[in-house]
């Protein structure tokens, strides 16, 4: 910008017009330019305003009340996925746009038609998965629906991935024809039980003895619930909890004669009918806080014998695989020394002793077991045992493999 007396303020006017043109061009370019957020989403979680949270809370309450749904519905995995998909769909519309939600939600008929397609898709994925996994277990469970009283048989497939995670797949849930002890099934027998002949039996029951028996059976219920957990592994609990019940059935001096008789019967029944398998012994020993079998001392030698037999069957494969890897390491080090450049600065280096590759001693499976047994590492009851073995995989490779196969 140059100023001359004869131009007056014309130069300033031209400058203003020029600045306006440049600003309009830059603004148009900036509006059309892609931002980094168009390609990458932020890793930070956005803070939801309290006003929005309150509106969502009210909507969830209205959903449960108006549609008569259980409270657990709004915390289910399927509901969360539905809410997230609706939230993601709302990102594509501006706050001023008017969108009818019915246009984006399919009708019940459409949903019912797609259930079969989704089932076939998941069935195909599961079939491909089963081809690749080496070890898995099929879980069979019988349960009764609390409202209808109908009994079902459920089948589930469980396996542990290479990164030590539990995967569960429901294979099916089938109606099981078994007579349940629900009100509809026992109603006809009430009249027979409560007649004069049986009523005398009820009046003769010793209430103190009944309370004593109920208190004694509380531990059985706790053990059943513990072994029935679905989200945690339970195979290593079988032997310790079994022994806990056997010890619980030992008659005490202060017990009544009736309770002593019940304890002896249940203790013998547990020993004869509840027989642990070899997998139970191995898995108990592979729990760092149960490996010494303090809860069941008589079972330790049997567990060690079983796991040594299992480890010996794997020894030949481990030795052959380790021998190949040692050769590869030696070649790599030799090539590094031979490739030193021939220059004046490297003359002495060329005369150095050749580096001998460091060959780590082969970690034989039985040595793994010995080191594991003398290790003082333990975990608590709430710790993840799979995470423990994931961290110990390098030190105990064979034992870690057994954990993935059997747990």
Shape: extended
Q: Strand content of the residues, in percent? A: 5-15%
Poorly predicted tracts of residues: 324-337
Q: Which H/E pattern describes the elements? A: HHHHEEEHHHHHHHHHHH
N-to-C span: 82 Å
User: In what order do the strands lie side by side in the largest sheet?
Assistant: 1-2-3
Q: Total number of helical segments?
A: 15
Helix content: 55-70%
What's the story with the biggest beta sheet?
3 strands, antiparallel
User: By helix and strand content, what is the structural category?
Assistant: mainly alpha
| Average of pLDDT | 76
Q: Specify the oligomeric state.
A: single chain
C-alpha Rg (nearest Å) = 36 Å
Query: How many strands appear in the DSSP assignment?
Result: 3
Can you give a write-up of this model?
The chain is mainly alpha-helical. Among the domains are: 50-105, Arc Repressor Mutant, subunit A (Orthogonal Bundle), CATH 1.10.10; 110-175, no CATH class; 297-406, no CATH class. The chain is 56% helix and 7% strand. It contains 15 helices and three strands. The protein has a three-stranded antiparallel sheet, with no helix packed on it. Helix 10 (278-285) packs across helix 11 (300-338). The longest helix has 39 residues, at 300-338. It is extended and about 125 Å long. The model is unreliable at 324-337 (pLDDT under 50). InterPro entries: RNaseH-like_sf, ZnF_BED_domain_contain. GO terms for molecular function: zinc ion binding.
């Amino acid at each position: 910008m140059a100023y001359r007396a004869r131009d007056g303020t014309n130069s300033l006017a031209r400058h203003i017009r020029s600045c306006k043109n440049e600003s309009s061009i830059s603004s148009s370019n900036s509006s059309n330019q892609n931002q980094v957020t168009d390609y990458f989403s932020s890793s930070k979680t956005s803070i939801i305003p309290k006003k929005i949270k309150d509106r969502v809370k009210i909507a969830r309450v209205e959903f449960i009340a108006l549609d008569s749904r259980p409270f657990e519905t709004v915390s289910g995995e399927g509901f969360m996925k539905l809410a997230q998909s609706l939230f993601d769909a709302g990102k594509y519309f501006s706050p001023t746009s008017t969108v009818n939600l019915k246009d984006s939600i399919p009708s019940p008929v459409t949903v019912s038609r797609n259930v079969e397609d989704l089932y076939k898709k998941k069935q195909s994925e599961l079939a491909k998965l089963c081809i690749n996994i080496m070890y898995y277990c099929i879980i069979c469970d019988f349960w009764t629906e609390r409202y209808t009283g109908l009994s079902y048989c459920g089948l589930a497939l469980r396996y542990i991935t290479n990164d030590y995670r539990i995967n569960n797949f429901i294979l099916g849930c089938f109606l099981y024809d078994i007579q349940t002890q629900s009100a509809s099934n026992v109603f006809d027998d009430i009249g027979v039980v409560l007649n004069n002949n049986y009523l005398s039996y009820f009046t003769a029951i010793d209430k103190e003895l009944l309370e004593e028996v109920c208190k004694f059976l509380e531990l059985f219920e706790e053990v059943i619930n513990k072994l029935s957990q679905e989200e945690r592994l339970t195979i290593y609990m079988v032997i310790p909890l079994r022994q806990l019940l056997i010890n619980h059935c030992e008659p005490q001096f202060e017990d009544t004669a009736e309770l002593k008789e019940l304890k002896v019967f249940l203790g013998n029944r547990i020993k004869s009918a509840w027989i642990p398998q070899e997998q139970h012994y191995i898995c108990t020993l592979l729990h760092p806080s149960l490996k010494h079998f303090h809860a069941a001392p008589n079972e330790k030698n049997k567990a060690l014998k079983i796991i040594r037999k299992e480890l010996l069957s794997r020894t030949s494969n481990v030795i052959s695989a380790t021998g190949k890897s040692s050769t590869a390491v030696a070649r790599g080090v030799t090539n590094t020394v031979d490739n030193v450049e021939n220059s004046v600065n490297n003359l002495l280096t060329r005369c150095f002793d050749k580096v001998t590759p460091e060959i780590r001693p082969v970690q034989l499976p039985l040595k793994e077991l010995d080191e594991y047994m003398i290790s003082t590492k333990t975990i608590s009851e709430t710790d993840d045992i799979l995470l423990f073995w994931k961290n110990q995989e390098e030190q105990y490779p064979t034992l870690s493999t057994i954990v993935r196969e059997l747990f």
